[in-house]
Known about the structure:
It contains 20 helices and 8 strands. It has helices spanning about 45-55, 65-75, 75-80, 105-130, 130-155, 160, 175-195, 200-210, 220-235, 240-255, 275-280, 290-295, 300-305, 345, 370-380, 390-405, 410-415, 455-470, 475-485, 535-545; strands at about 5, 15-20, 85, 265, 285, 365, 510, 515. A two-stranded antiparallel sheet has the order 1-2. Strands 3-5 form a two-stranded antiparallel sheet.
Amino acid sequence: xxxxxxxxxxxxxxxxxxxxxxxxxxxxxxxxxxxNNGSTSQKAATVQTAVGLLKGAMPLIHDAREHKYQYQFxxxxxxxxxxxxxxxxxxxxxxxxxxxxxxxxxxxxxxxxWVAQQVVPxxxxxxxxxxxxxxxxxxxxxxxxxxxxxxxxxxxxxKDYRALKSEPPITYEKVSEIYAQILASLKKQQQILKDLxxxxxxxxxxxxxxxxxxxxxxxxxxxxxxxxRMRLAMRMVKAAPEQAKxxxxxxxxxxxxxxxxxxxxxxxxxxxxxxxxxxxxxxxxLNANFANLLTRLKHPALKEWFTPIPQGFKDKEGNVTVEGDxxxxxxxxxxxxxxxxxxxxxxxxxKFSRINPSYVTKNVxxxxxxxxxxxxxxxxxxxxxxxxxxxxxxxxxxxRTSFTNEGLSGLVEYxxxxxxxxxQIDYIDxxxxxxxxxxxxxxxxxxxxAWDNSADKEKQLEMIIxxxxxxxxxxxxxxxxxxxxxxxPRMIVNDAGDTGDGSIPPHSWKASEGKxxxxxxxxxxxxxxxxSVALDDIxxxxxxxxxVEDKSxxxxxxYQAAHLWWDVPGKGNF
Length: 574
């Protein structure tokens, strides 16, 4: 695959686009390929124009186009979350998955700006066009994208991007300030929609035309907004505990996604981007961390979402390392990879577990109903006012909701599986034994599925986050963010010697024992410094906004190891 970053002339900062040349795929003609990503108008001239803009925004939220999905998630965040790993070096551009690549890291910004170009004109013209419900929905979409973007890089130009400001200077705002603005906006938008319910017949007809993700029901948009408020409130529980509690309880009272609701997701017409990226391009494989977790918990999703490694697989020394059927193999994040054009790739990691062909029919998830149940479980664990049910009840409902919405069987057997039935397992790299990791070294721990009333709150929190992590696949940004916040689930660390951008300390390597010792993980992606992004803006406003009182040597510095405001180092979960 050939990648090239280009700048659309005349559009300034908002003209950042990605030009992606095809591998062996041919993108077919459908609504995902006919999106106007270049609108810079501040207002929609007509109601029908506004309808078209909102409809165009929906497929860009979590991009259904394969190349764009790679840039938005798969080339970096999917790896950091522990779900997937870039399987090859992408023509030498990504020799290790922790190695920063300025071009690859532009994806989250590009999608935020594309969505902004579609929804901001609707926000600005909603009152004039007398379509307040469309303005509220457009604002929810912008806030969702901003919430995801700020968790990738940290400080961002929230106000400037919402104003479609296209030329420097651009002002980056602090994460804490952005969170406050998003939470206030979401509360306002959900109230606007409540006050308009039931919608007029004209508004209902418009919603049927442009809503591609929320079931064409305004109540789902209200729930979506409040669910996002719950997510953000819990995210800042370490940085602002009292505010987090108040915001969370307010969102619960206003009504979020319920266990019986469908996920907020984009219908892909039988074309999930991850399948093409894995099967057709060989660009992604199962992560060792996720393979280890699903295997030892005996989760039925393992065989539904991924494929086993071929029987009779041989390692680099020619020894058969996979003798039976049904063995799933994951790659470690951070390890060195091969160029897929070389024969050695076909003999090695190309054969590791890939996306199951059945996954092509999945919708592109945006926000899962099961996540709300796990958020409520954590809220109950913290003794917040969350509806009167116990942490155990919400936890089990979260698992059940996930099984239902994912179409998985075996719920009763799974949810009652005790720790004694989930023993620690070693990680085995079936190609290169140097990367093997004993269970006691790789983050694996005896952790069951069945709720343990005798466990302390920390262990119960680990259970909640671990099951939320599984249920949220493939929402890698959310899972990476929760790992940074809580330290869960326990991860298999990256390969020895990979320091990323230099801020991740090198891992100690015991040559005599062949063990990789755990160390730091990536906490953020550095600011985009390519295309039309002004370096002066980063130096003058982004870097100062990144500085937080966390006693980290990287605070305020544009490194992978710098912690975001809500990612408080050294502070316990309770």
